Structure formats: structure tokens, C-alpha cells
Amino acid sequence: MSANSAFNDEKGGSSSVGEPEYGHDPASGGIFSSDYKRHDDLKEMLDSNKDSLKLEAMKRIVAMIARGKNTSDLFPAVVKNVACKNIEVKKLVYVYLVRYAEEQQDLALLSISTFQRGLKDPNQLIRASALRVLSSIRVTIIVPIMMLAIKEAASDMSPYVRKTAAHAIPKLYSLDPEQKDQLIEVIEKLLADKTTLVAGSVVMAFEEVCPERIDLIHKNYRKLCNLLIDVEEWGQVVIINMLTRYARTQFLNPNMNESLLEEGSDKTFYGSDEDEDEEEEEEKDKKAEAPAMAKRKPYVMDPDHRLLLRNTKPLLQSRNAAVVMAVAQLYFHLAPKAEVGVIAKALVRLLRSHSEVQYVVLQNVATMSIKRRGMFEPYLKSFYIRSTDPTQIKVLKLEVLTNLANETNISTILREFQTYIKSMDKDFVAATIQAIGRCATNIGEVRDTCLNGLVQLLSNRDELVVAESVVVIKKLLQMQPEKHSDIIKHMAKLTDNIQVPMARASILWLIGEYCEHVPKIAPDVLRKMAKSFTNEEDIVKLQIINLAAKLYLTNSKQTKLLTQYVLNLAKYDQNYDIRDRARFIRQLIVPTEKSGALSKYAKKLFLALKPAPVLESPFKDRDHFQLGSLSHLLNAKAGGYQELPDWPEAAPDPSVRNVEVPEWTKCSSREKRKEKKVEKPFYSDSEGESGPTESADSESDSASGSESGSGIEESGSGSESEESEEGSESEEEEEEEKEKDKKKKKKELKKPVQESESEQSSEEEERKHERKSKQRKSESESESDEEEDSESESSQTESEDSESEAEVKKKKKAAESKPPSKPVKKDNKKEKKEMSLLDLDDFEPAPSPQATPVNSFLSNSLATDLEGLSLSDAVLSPATISPSSALKSYEMLHRITGEGLSVEYCFSRQPFSPDANMVAVQMQFTNNATSDTKNLHMEDVKLQSGMRVKEFPEIELLPAGEMVTAVMGIDFCDSTQAANFQLCTHTRKFFVSIQPPVGELMRPVFLTENEFKKEQGQLMGMNEITEKITLDVKCRNEHSIVQRVITAANLSRVPCGSDKECRFAGRTVTSSSLVLVTVATKEEGAAKLTINCEKMVIGTMLVKDILLALTQ
Amino acid sequence: MIHSLFLINASGDIFLEKHWKSVVSRSVCDYFFEAQERATEPENVPPVIPTPHHYLISVLRHRIYFVAVIQSEVPPLFVIEFLHRVVDTFQDYFGVCTEAAIKDNVVVVYELLEEMLDNGFPLATESNILKELIKPPTILRTMVNTITGSTNVGEQLPTGQLSVVPWRRTGVKYTNNEAYFDVVEEIDAIIDKSGSTITAEIQGVIDACVKLTGMPDLTLSFMNPRLLDDVSFHPCVRFKRWEAERILSFIPPDGNFRLLSYHVSSQNLVAIPVYIKHNITFREGSSQGRFDLTLGPKQTMGKAVESVLVSSQLPRGVLNANLNPSQGTYTFDPVTKMLSWDVGKINPQKLPSLKGTMSLQAGASKPDENPTINIQLKIQQMAISGLKVNRLDMYGEKYKPFKGIKYMTKAGKFQVRT
User: Fold this and answer.
1) How far apart are CA A327 and CA A321, in angstroms?
2) If we measure between CA atoms, which residue out of A359, A353, A399 comes closest to residue A376?
3) What residue intervals traverse the membrane (chain B) (predicted)?
4) A1085 — alpha (psi -120 to 50), left (phi > 0) or beta?
């Protein structure tokens, strides 16, 4: 039995002969000797019916595993219990299984079915733990099962399960690297996940499986940056390290310009201390780039680069040293020189931590302090050494102090060093002497002081100290030997006492090298050495030969015989190096007939002027390893280390990080920012840019229309106002009207085409016509005659008093008087879109009675909106006019992935009449393909629990080149979880999802000021979130604030007595929880944003959105 | 990431091993033992030891080495920080983290380690989550468990795992709602021979013990937040709020936790609470040395200096010390040459002193190194930097909690060179 033999091995020889003794020696062999017996009773216990017995048995088994005892013979008995009901037994069985499955593959397979069942369990905890154990069993046969399970779990609803799936990826990869391609697909999918829980784990998997696939990061880069602060700390470390590498490949060197300047200034930097440490590669870079220099544009940091730096900075405050270090290395490798300084403080703080942390941090500080000395100079005193520090810490601190030394602080540092020399820790003293030597070579002014100090140390009682001093003095003397012959003499005397080989060797070398300065002493030293030659260490022997040779060349009269003697001794030495050297030197210096031309040059060979050694830090050039990495610490490449790439010469296309946006939402001037917002709808800043005015308008417009009960009117006016702007200059009205006319004509031109194409005309189709014409009529009416329009308006909103009537008029005017600048931008496409917006409502079922309450509240909110507008109208100046855009739309299916079919959706903010708890989502299908698409419908809706969907009616035919819109309703249950479903055509199925921004999860509600205050009072404390903000320059007046807030969230304005405050109210669609928003403005664009909502999650997300809307 | 973990006690026995991936033979620890032998002091074992196939990263705490085995590149601090977190968790669970405690609770330890790492990557390290997964052993629970056969393992998925506040569990209930905050400051200083300060800085922490029902949202504001120069927070603290208003706003974890650690800006002069007069001399040729030490209070803002403990590593040549303390007791360990003097409270009227002679090895030359004197002390009801909490408010819950704030100053690494 294999287990038994292993067991015996472990025991060693002690009882290997014969039977194990039972309980013979309870103290030492107790556990061993009774193992057989014990295992039997453990088996019995495991087979029993009682959970408590099983648990007891498992506990004992686990205790044995923990001690490293082999219990593999119990495998069959344990595995049976994998399906045990008791959760602790189960967990312990898992522990056992994972430990031994590799050894007992066949038996382990018995347990697989249990896990497969577990994977389907409704409880996410059980699903996750089943996957966890399944993937931890290292049995190759189950690779396909694992692969399936991982794929399944990667699209699980629970983020916890998805996290587990991410963890399982590297496990499977290490088991079977051939699965790489499939695993990369899963990683790609999980990288797109938006929850913080998953982010860290999937990046970890990415790093282990496919760190070279940097392209997978592009689309997720911004999301990762934004999520970073909320990711758990371990994930943060991994993500930051990965992003450092990513940034190195994608952005330009922020210090590029400085290096260019330096080159321009004729390399003066070699002289200055600060730049001495300039990275070599940088120089190389510069040289390579020199021709291109003229062409180089001034460096502008990529906004994404900035985003990374900005979002990592707060993490310097983390309590986790690893996170702080990760950020520090990121800044060191990526930030412009001027900004790197911020990390010093945090790193110095880590020096208070455990000594192991100090050790690692100091290593990194040592490397950094070489390149960026200025950064740590203010913290010089934090590196002072305490007698209680462990030696390895002391030595590292010394290293840092030496790196930081310069002309100004050298005196304090040397004084500090003086106290260190008196330390009891001799290793540390030796290191201090080395450090003094380095300071002396680096800083010329203190060289003599240091030398004198070191010479004094030569009379120290401790041999180690003396020896170390000798070695250092030797190096220093080499710099200016002629001045210091007395020191050499002094050292020659030391040979009698010093026994440390290195020191003796150093002295001998010095005397040999400078024998001309000490002509009398040198032969005498050689004489003494020759005497003790046989007892010396090898390095000393070599130096004796060396000395002999040099003396022979300079002073052969006195030393000829001695040299011969030494060489003869060396000839028979045990060490072949020494024999070798002796032979070589003899040939070279002793002239014989056979000796060649070389011996003539012997003197030149031996006594050539040797350059003084450069004492440099062992940490120099370590920064080619990524700081904070294991490889950096060891100064050797560790397995799996990812090289930190050099900066690219030219930045790769930054647009790869953009997620492609549908063209019509692109606003030509701000393309980039818009794109950004589409990528991360959560923190979308779009609301800030797309003129919020118009949405406020559309809001009220639709409200006014809703009274009439016609959905078309609503959307008609909505789309109308889409382009409308707050510009009430009357002199431009005429022009606009003309424009409108033109547009109308275009519309009319197009409509027939569409009609003719939609062959299957039905009753509905006809109704559509009717409505359209009616719509057109009302439109033209309103345009042609304002007076009339306002009257009709007022008739609709009878309840309003005369004042509000006037408001309505004003507003209407505003809505219609379109900005003169607008039409230029808007091309045909835009118009087409508008039209389709009209079309859309045809699919909406006729308003049902259920919808009326919603409508009525909308009409209520009208008043508030109008009030808001009336106020703002007064303040409004032409300068604040912002370009308007449509309701923000999101891409659901790109035309490439959709094989010609593209789908976009937007939240129309219309009440969804079939179900008031649903949010209306308006979808626009465009068929860009050359063939018709048929039977567009949705299938296989996957939702979080509680969510519901009202599907859109099937679209039977979508001819090539056409577009069509449809409306569906989704009850998101007040969460921003995406609704996933399949979009099916007659040929294909596409997985798509709709994710709502939090602002769309609410509907406006009308409150009076008092009601508002009362409600707010009840939503204090945790339900209240306050943020101080600085308003965007373009958003300082009340009007634009209202606009932006309302664009960001579907809220209505609440009247307010103070003009310093704007208030908004709404209710979440599903649970009708009140959402109250207050923006109180102060001087200079400062403002306070308060959100009261009993749903904290909604509140916090809304804060982010509104904040963005107001500050950007 | 982390492959395996070995726990090694002071005498070099591996008393626990845990593997998260394939089993790594415990013979890998031989490299560690080698390094241990080479290092003279236990704390001098290098934290990272490369071996041909693995890397060993270790931390030493409570005289136990926690040795993690890793196989490929990983930030060393990541592992070190994690190992310390493991130790903290053990301490949290068992009260102490000793070999005996770990051996007694080996099953809980194993369950904990299983939850904390998955495939070598940290999974749940937040003590609140862990406590929901695996209940800490108490005497009562152990008894109940043995009788009823119920378990220590929680049945539910910890709510924290998924919530926006992963550090706090839901459904916390207390009859007495209380929140205590300890502001503890430590003075790190090096004083030179003549009594002048070479370097001094103040590091502080705010440790909290919060036992509040429900989901309280606390804010803590300071009278003088400007004092805080560099801070690091528990993840619960809202960073934005601090940046903007210098207010600590947080939903606290349940139980004990470190809310904040801070560094007081070095511009402020640090008050040094005690002074020391020392005269430690050895004479050439004589086998006697003089030892004379007097302590006195300096800048204590009128508060008493308590629990003073003076210790000093005397030179190797010292055989014995024959001293006479004016108060307290002293001990001298002739093996380690460690002298420690438990002074107690400093009475400003009658300054404590320790005087006497040291006997040296006969014939040996006078030691040329000077001992350093380490001082520990405590001052109650005062934060030496002057930091003061302004107010503590609670939102989100209806009840009135009992709030308490305590200040204390301690000496951190406080050394006097002689």
C-alpha cells in the first residue's frame, strides 16, 4: 500500500523494522505508533450515522494533515461524506479532498457529481463553494468539466460566483495550459464585469494566464481606473501593478521633455549631482530621438494617463502596506518628475510598520533615492538608526542615508555615522565604515575629514573595524596617493597585527602599488610576508606575489632574492590559482632567453596607473526591475516576472480605450468626452454636456401634452424640444421658422418613401398615418401662430392659473425659438432620427387607464418645471446657451457584431403605460446589411430576481438600410443591474444587455416646499449624503444647474423660496422611495449637493452622477 | 501566489503546514533553517529567501515564524502584509497567537486559512466576514458544540461579502450601545549624549471599539485636524469627506478596529516628556565601571508620567551590575547583558535614580561602545501633539449611544544615546 510505505518513510528509521509498537513511548511516538489502530477507528466513525462522530473524525484527520501526517489511506472513507448534510463536516471533507485528490485521482472522481449538482444550486454560496472545490481538485480528467463550470459561472448572476470563477481560471490553467485560448475568452468576458468584487480576481487571472494580451485591457482601462478605489485591497495591488505595465506601453514618457532639455544644454548634467543618476536608457533614448527632436510636439499627458495617476493617489492612504507600495511604484514609474514626491511621505510612514515591511520598503526607497534624491531629503531623519533595529534594517537605512548625502547635509550625516561606529553591532559598524567611504568619494569636500576619521579607526581595538577601515582607506587613497604616504606607512605597520585576510591583502596591494612613495618600508614588508607566506589565506598570498613582482620591477636590487623565494613557495602551493599566478609572473618579470617581448613591458603592465574605484550603491540600476516586485528585491529575475516595458517612442492610438459610440450621439466638438461617457454609463458625465435645458423642456412639454392622452403628441414635442434651446431672442424667430419649414419638407419627403417600403400595411399602419399628420398639423400650428398655440396649451392645462399660463407661453416660445447655430451641425441623419422618434410610438399600445395617474403627476410636475424655467429665463443670457443633444442613447448591439444589425437604446422617460413600475426603453433598430432582417424579437431573458420585462412586439421585417424603433418596459427593481436577453433575428441570436443609469430609475414627483422639507427631515442621517462640489464654470447659474440635474436624473423641480437653492424630487420607479436632491450654491461656484433617499445605494450612485453632471 | 504556509516555532519545529496548490515538501524549510543559523538574532533572518525552485517569505511574530512558499513573481509586501493579517486574525480569534493556541484550535485555524486564501490569492481577510463564516471559539460555544454536535461554521453567505460595506455584518444587536475611541500617540525620539533632541516625531493611532446596533453612520471631527500630516485609514472611512472637510465619516466595523493612524507634521516641535541624566563610565585598567542614572519629568503638561521602564543593553564585557534604585526594581541578565529598571511613576519631588557599579571582566580592556538607553512610559489623558476630538455624531440609527474618548501618550522608540 503506497500510503503505508510513505508513512514508513516519514517515520524514518526509528521503527522501520518489524511491527510498529503500540503506545510504547507516548511522549514521542504516540501519534505514530498507534496510527494503524487509530485509522481504523476513524474509519468506523466516518461510516457511522452520527454527524457528531463524523465531525470528530474529520477534525482529527484535519489535525493530522496540519501536522503533515499522511492520512491518504482514509480517502475512500472520507470521500463518501462529501454529500454530508452537516456543513462543517462537508467543509472539512473539502479540505481533505483538495489535499489528497491529486494522489488518488480515481477515487476523487466519485465526488465530482456532488459538485456538479452543487453548481446548479439556487444558493450562491453553495454554487461558489462547489466551483471552488471542483476547480481545486487537480485531476486532469475533469478539465472539460471544469471548463464548462467556469464558463457557466462566468455568466452567473451572483458577482460572488463570478469572482469564484475568476479564481478558478488560474487553477485550470496550471492544470492544463492548453485551455489557454478558451480561458482567455472567459477572462475577456469577466474583465468587462462592472462589479468591484470581480475586478481584482479577474485581473489576477489575467496576470497568470495571459499577461501579454494587453489588448484585452484597452476597453476596460477606464473602468478599472474608476473602480479601483472600491476594489478590495488585495485586488488593488494586482490591478495597480498590471496598470503600471499597461501604461508603460500605451502612454508617452511624461519626463520626455526634461530629458530633451537636458540634451539641449550640452550634457552639463554630468557635472551636477542631481542628474548624475540619470537613467542610462533615457540617454540612449534621447540620442535615438535626437533627429526627431525638432519635430516633437510639446508633451501633453494623455487624459487616461492622468486618470490613472489621479485615481491611484488616494490609495497612498491605505492601511495596507502592499497597496501603498504598489501606488508608490506606479508613481515612480509613470508620474512626471514633479509629482513623484507625494509618495515619499507614505513610504516613510510604512517605516513604522513591522520589520519585514520596513525591510522591503527600505530596499525600494534605496533604489528610488538614487534616482530621485530630492524626494526623500526632507525625511532624512526618519532614516536615522536606532540601536534596537535589526541589523538588516540598519544596513538598509545606512544605504539610504548614504544615497541622500550631499554637500549640505553631509556634516549631520557624518556626525550620525560617528555614533554608529561605536555601536555594539559589529556588522553594522563595518557597513558604516563602507558608507563613510562612499560619502568621501562622492563628496570631495569631506574626503580628507573622512580619511582622517578612518585612519583613527585603525587604532580601534576591534579587528573587524580596523580591517574594514583598511579596505575603505585603500580605495580612498587610490584617488590621491601622493598626498598620503604617511597613511600608507601607518598601514604598513598594521600588517603585524591585523589578521583579517581582506585587510592584509588591501594593505599589501597599497604598498605594492605605491612602493615608490614608501621605498624603505616596502621591501621590509615583503620580507615579513615571505616569512609567513605559507600560513596566509589565498587572497593574501596572491597579493604577496603581486607585491613581490612590483618590487622586483622597481627595486630589484633589494628584493630579487625575496621575490625568487616567494615565487618558489608559490610554485608548490596547494591552490592552483596561486601556482598559476606564480608561473605567469615569473615568466613575465624574470628575464630569460626564452622570454618574449612582453617582459620588456612588464613594468607598464604592473604599474600602470589604475583608475580609482568608483564606490557605488548596490542599488544602482536596480530600477530596471519594477519596484516593489520580488525580482527587484532579489535583484534577479524571478519566475513569471513581467518585464516593465520601455516607454513607446510614439503613443499608440489612444482611441483603442474608447468604446465605440453610435455616430449620432457624437458631438463634433467633444467627441472624446462623449465617448468616455458611453463606456461607463455609471459615472456618466454626459448629462453635464448635453444641454440639460432641452430635457427640462421636453419634460414639461411632454407633461403638457400628456393631458391630451395622446402618446404621439408627447414624443413629438419631446423630439421637437430635443433640438430646442433656451434662446428667446425674438429677432431670430423668423429665420428659425424658415428652417423648420425646410425640415418639415424633408420629413415629408422621406415619409412617403418609408411608407411605400413598409408593405404590410395594417390598421395600425394607417393609424400611424393619421397620427403623424395630426402631429404635423399641431406642430405647424404651434409654429405658425404662437398666440393660438399658447391658448390651446392653456386649454389643455386648465388647472393652471393665469400666471402659469404666461409661463407656458414663454416657455413654448423658448422651446421653439431654436438657436441659430444649431441646424448647421445637424445633418440628415439627425433628422431621420427625429422622425423615427415619431414612429416609435406607433408600437406603443394605446394609453390605458392605468397610465393616467402617472400622467396626472406629470402634469403636476409641469408647474414646477415651469417655475424653474421662468426663474431661469430671467437670468439667462445668450452666453450660457449650450448646444443641445438628444436623449442619451446607448449601444446595445454594434453593427459589426450584429452583422449589419445595429441597435441603440435610450430611456425615453415616458411612462410605460402597460405597467407603471417599468421603465420605458426605446430601441432603435437599424439594418445596415444588404439583406432584410426578419422576425426581430427577444428571447431568453435573464434577470436578477424581482426584475421583469415587457418585451417589445416582434418586428416582422426590417428591410435593408431601414430603421425602426420599438419600446419595451423593464422593471429594474430599483437596481442598476443589467437586464440580459437574446435578440433574435430569423438567422442569428445576439446576447445583449441593458443597463440603466441610476437617474433613469426614478420618475418625477411634485412636492411643495413644505412637503419637501418635511420629507427631507425624515430622511436624515445615513439616508442623507452630502458632497461639497465646485460647479463647472459653465454651470454657475441656477438655470444650468436645473438643466444638468434634470438631464442626469429623471426628477422634477420643487419650488423654493431661496434663489441659492435648487431642489428636486422624484420617486424610484419600483419601490416609490422618495429621492430628494438639493443643490445649494455659494460663492465662487462652490456648492453643496445633498441627496436624501432611503435607498442608500441609489443615493450614493445618484450623487456620483449628479456630481459629474455639475462639475464637468 | 502563495503556495504553502509553514509555521515554525522558536526551536525550529514545523508544527503546522497548509498547502493551497500542490503539496510542497516540508524539506523546503531547510533553506530557511540555514538562513536562520546564519543570522545571529532571530529578527535578522531575511524576510525573503530564494531557493532553487521556490522563494520563502517569512514574518516573525510572537516567536513563531510564518513561512510562506511562493513559486513565482509576486510583490513581497503583498505576502508579508497577508501573513501579518493572518497573525492578526489568529490573535483576534484566540486572544493570543502562540504555538499552544494554534495547536489547540488547529481545526479552526485550518478553516480560517482555507477561507482566507483561494488558490493562493486572498479571498476574505476582513475579520467581520470571517467571523460570520467561522465563529470564534468561546468556552461556552465549545461546550454547546460538544453536547449538541453543532458547528462553528456559519451557514449563510456573509452579507458583508456582497454589500457595499464589506467590513460590517448586518443584523448587529446590542443592548448597550457604545462607541469608544482611544487616541494613542507614541513619541519616537533619539536624544543624544548631551540631552538635545536629534530627531523626534509623533505617530498616533485611533483605535475604536464600537458596539452599536444596526447600521450606524458615524462622523468624528477634530478641533485641530491640521495637526495630522499623514494619515492612513481603515477602508470604512470616506476619503472624499476627509479631503474636503477634514471630518472622519464612516460606517464602523463591528467590534475592535484601528480607525486611523496618523503622523503629526514634523514642523511642530515635539514635547519630550522626560529627561535623563546619565553617567556611565568605564575606566581603563580597572574592572569596575560606574553607572548613574536619574530620570525627571520635562514637558508633561502637568500630567503624571507612569509605567516608566528603562532598559539598556550593556556592553558585552560587563559581568554584573550592582545597583541601587531609589524606587522600583531592576534586573540584570548576565547572559544577554540586558539591564531593565521598572521605575513606575515619576514623582517630580523625588526624582528616581539608579546608581551603583558594574563589574567587568578582569583584564579585558575597557569596552569602547556606549550603551543606549531605551525608555517606555505612559501619560494618561493627554495626546502629546495636542490633538483633540471635537465631536462624535451618529446618524442612521435612532438610539442614543454611549460615547467615550480616551487619550494616551506613550513612548514609542524612545532612545537616549550615551
Assistant:
1) 10
2) A399
3) none
4) left
